[in-house]
UniProtKB/TrEMBL annotation:
The gene is LOC108673221. Residues 34-309 form the NADP-dependent oxidoreductase domain. InterPro entries: AKR, LGALDH-like, NAD(P)_OxRdtase_dom_sf, NADP_OxRdtase_dom. GO terms for molecular function: L-galactose dehydrogenase activity. This is L-galactose dehydrogenase. It holds the Pfam family Aldo_ket_red.
Amino acid sequence: MEEKTYVEGFHDKDAVKKVQYNDLGKTGLRVSQLGIGTSSLGNCYEVVGEAADVEMVVEGVRLGLNYVDTAPWYGNRKSEQVLGKALLHVLRKAYYIATKVGRYEPNFEKMFDFSAAKTIESVDQSLQLLGLEYVDVIQVHDVEFADDINQVILETLPALEKVRQQGKARFIGITSYCPDVLQYVLDNSSVKIDTVLNYARSSLLDKSLQEYIPRFQSAGVGIINASITSMGLLSSRGPQSWHPAGYDIQRACEAARALCKAEGVEIADLALQSAIATPSISCHLLGSTDAPMLRASLAVAQRPATSREASLGRRLNDECFKNLKQRDWGMRDVEIYLRERQRAS
């Protein structure tokens, strides 16, 4: 049981005892192996009622998931707004919270802004919406989209250091789909970076994050894994139409979903089991749309994989993914963004 965030009378004590907690790098925070991702609160994948959103967050924390991640980007700050309402029902001691700066509006011309002025303004707006005096982790969102990565290193991160010194955040992080970009920023930043968040690179489909873990560990940062289902590719509902993966990956994952459906196994369960089996990752973010879905995912994570599930996981690799020449989509989403931004200007 994680004593620092446990609140007698609020938490489900028996549930908390089942939760695994890990060190978040050298921050001193002990975070739940599974965290609460809140992109669903911004209706990024489907429209979910606010009451269900609030219930999901409160229930997740009550069950012992003490790390909550959000961002202004999720629904043009709707996620932060709804999350703020959920946090009214939870004591501040019971959770650690992370939000982000850098990515904001769906408008391509206003989507990214890594300037110091916008960074500081965004932190204040996030705190207002969340109803908090500080966040535990403030992260630069999707650093690979910066027109010049040196702006993140020389302007955004120093602005966040000022935020940290003002007591508005305790730790600083960076996020990216590209682990090599995370490594570059770590290697070149004069500002101490405490966490890295990488998404869709520690999954059934793509395990390339693993080769970077020793380097991240040597830098003393906590590692957070997001998008366990590779943004819907590894879920029975499938991805949204805007998913950046190319044709070969899309078809391979379609075949994987069909195989799991034929076997009566939820592919998202296999994706979750595969993700949490990766050692040295501090926290894996769950993207749940409601409390029952969150509880179901937690149950899957806390039981051993069945022999059938283990066998099916191997079959997916051998029959669906093995012949893929490339399992990631590289900088394709950045290329799409730049093309659309040029059209809009």
